[in-house]
UniProtKB/TrEMBL annotation:
<comment type="similarity">
    <text>Belongs to the P-Pant transferase superfamily. AcpS family.</text>
</comment>
<keyword id="KW-0443">Lipid metabolism</keyword>
<dbReference type="InterPro" id="IPR008278">
    <property type="entry name" value="4-PPantetheinyl_Trfase_dom"/>
</dbReference>
<dbReference type="Pfam" id="PF01648">
    <property type="entry name" value="ACPS"/>
</dbReference>
<comment type="similarity">
    <text>Belongs to the P-Pant transferase superfamily. Gsp/Sfp/HetI/AcpT family.</text>
</comment>
<keyword id="KW-0275">Fatty acid biosynthesis</keyword>
<feature type="domain" description="PAC">
    <location>
        <begin position="1"/>
        <end position="21"/>
    </location>
</feature>
<keyword id="KW-0963">Cytoplasm</keyword>
<keyword id="KW-0444">Lipid biosynthesis</keyword>
<keyword id="KW-0460">Magnesium</keyword>
<dbReference type="InterPro" id="IPR050559">
    <property type="entry name" value="P-Pant_transferase_sf"/>
</dbReference>
<keyword id="KW-0808">Transferase</keyword>
<feature type="binding site">
    <location>
        <position position="8"/>
    </location>
    <ligand>
        <name>Mg(2+)</name>
    </ligand>
</feature>
<dbReference type="InterPro" id="IPR000700">
    <property type="entry name" value="PAS-assoc_C"/>
</dbReference>
<dbReference type="InterPro" id="IPR002582">
    <property type="entry name" value="ACPS"/>
</dbReference>
<keyword id="KW-0276">Fatty acid metabolism</keyword>
<dbReference type="InterPro" id="IPR037143">
    <property type="entry name" value="4-PPantetheinyl_Trfase_dom_sf"/>
</dbReference>
Length: 120
């Protein structure tokens, strides 16, 4: 049974501007495992990854019904890429299954999170 669905679209340029204004932005958004993947990327690919993680976490918070804030923060959700490059949610405040999808253009990143009851 589906428990929640969340979708987000983020302008990559907006994330780039945040990163330029606030160098600690990466530490606020990415968990240590995500940072490790991020550090292995360069140029536009690194920016796409960072924007994707921001957007995935926004999508999760929408599906969960809380938004990002006091109940769920960026460090409470972790999404790392598997060997094939698919985003896998490895940490979240949800007991069921979490499905993630991310796609991007040169301008935007769009993500979707689906929360599924663990008994299904």
């Amino acid at each position: 049974m589906i428990k929640g669905i969340g979708i987000d679209i983020t302008e990559i340029k907006r994330i780039q501007e945040m990163l330029q204004k606030h160098p600690q932005f990466v530490n606020k958004i990415l968990t240590p495992a995500e940072q490790k993947q991020y550090e292995g990327l360069n140029g536009s690919r690194a920016l796409e990854y960072l924007a994707g993680r921001w957007s995935l976490k926004e999508s999760f918070s929408k599906a969960y019904g809380t938004g990002i804030g006091s109940e769920v923060g960026f460090q409470d959700i972790e999404v790392v890429d598997n060997q094939l490059g698919a985003p896998i949610v490895t940490k979240a405040p949800f007991a069921g299954r979490v499905h993630a999808s991310v796609s991007h253009t040169a301008v935007n990143v769009i993500t979707e999170i689906l929360l599924e009851d663990k008994n299904d």
